[in-house]
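Continuing the batch. This is chain 6 of the set; chains 1 through 5 are on the previous pages. Same settings as before, nothing changed between runs. Recording input and output for traceability.
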Amino acid sequence: MILGLWLDLPVWLIFTTLAGVFAAATGLFVLLSNLRWTRPAVLFVGTGVIPAYFTAISVLLALLTGFVANDAWERQRQAARVVQNERSNLLAVHDLSLATVSDMREIRTALVAYADALITDEWPKMTDGLSSLEAGAALGRLMAVAADPKHDVAGQSAHALLLDAVMNLRTARGERLALSDAQGDQSKWLTLMVLAGLTLVSIGLVHLERPMAQVTTLTLFSVAMVTTLGVIALHERPFDGPMAMSPTPIERAKAVMLEGRG
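Output for chain 6:
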């Protein structure tokens, strides 16, 4: 729930929130390790901690960060491929309907109606992981019209290609909805933040005897983590958030279909 709200924030607020969390954690640890009534307890716990301990946790943090980043980027790439695939199949159905000798005006009308439902109704709903009943009904009408046996007069090969393109549209829509409905796995982000916190603490413990070096290293680590996590967050959800994919490819396909509609 918290992750979903955070990912919906504007870009600047995503980074500001992260910066605030790491600044608070850094400030709290520096205070605890340097105030005279808490420093003895921190020294008792942290004295003798060697840099190798920090290295062990930082390696785990790096591995998990790489996993989360790769997962986010892969979803972004998949979403881009799916949308382009939908665009290609929309144009393929349209071009096939024009290339045949039979009158397929009904198919083109259903195709434009489906594209319009995607743009105006389904795309806004995908930000909440929902699908559009209107788009589903429009796709059903398109499939029914394309499967009409009367189009066999255009030739079985042409009709088969037309049906394949329509079915590819159905498959692409299912993949797109699956990507939009995939809620971010909060457990991986929670684990990432825990490891980041442990790494921050271990860096602070290693530099207990040198307060200025402690502040410097904690600040550098926090800046690095805010930058990295912020960039990953921007790509976590391809159809939602500040960098959500737009329906521009579908809109362009619709424009082409309207220009060549007959």
